[in-house]
Amino acid sequence: MQVTLIGSGNVATVMGKQLCSLGHRIMQVYSRDTDHAAALAKQISAGVAEDISAIRAGADMYLLAVTDDAVHTTVASLQLGPDALLVHTAGSISKDILKNAAGQYGVLWPMKMIRKSMPSLGEVLMVIDAGSAATLAKVKEVAGIFSSNILVADDDKRGQLHLLASLTANFSNHLYHLAETYCTQEGIDFKNLLPIIKATVDNLGYFHPAEMQAGPAFRGDAVTIEKHLSLLENYPDIAGLYKALSESIRLVAARQ
To answer: How large is the angle between the packed helices 34-43 and 10-21, nearest 10 degrees?
Structure first.
């Protein structure tokens, strides 16, 4: 398969490297930042489109992997023709934004937090959609290159999944970040927390989250909550989240 990458950030880099490693050819890389495009192109032996108008015809797929706020402006400058397949990788943007830029269009969203240093997507859910059944079959075939775990979701369902990704991944990672900050300041090795973090995630494969809830807020243990808050006296941001989450846990437990 011959692919043109439109974008040079985290998603474009990792998906481009993975495609290249599996024997697919990256024809060109385009980015608003030409230096970034050139750096990625060098890694994957691709050409560089120094302007969006220099993107050539003939690719089997045009992979639009840019930030959400850049999708609209980038698409407005694309005219790839009736036979071109254009897919974007955004979870919260409608597929129909692409319909005037290419005859075949769809969504190929890897539901995962991605960084350039990753050699591949690894284990991932590929969420897909397309403007027609025929195009969906093509997008599904491409998704299969990256993962056997594929979900077809329309714009509304994909938007819900994007929200849930924020709740379960982005928000939890922020809590880990805050915990790591506390560990650093208090001379605790954050790695000591990895067993309980991993065990909590593993248990989700066997138990409903409601069955796994524990802690002082769940038990109504006001004494321990106050002790915890005293330990957070110098960390007002963490203390605020601790109070809000504890109250949420208390309210949910009371309704059960």
So the answer is: 20
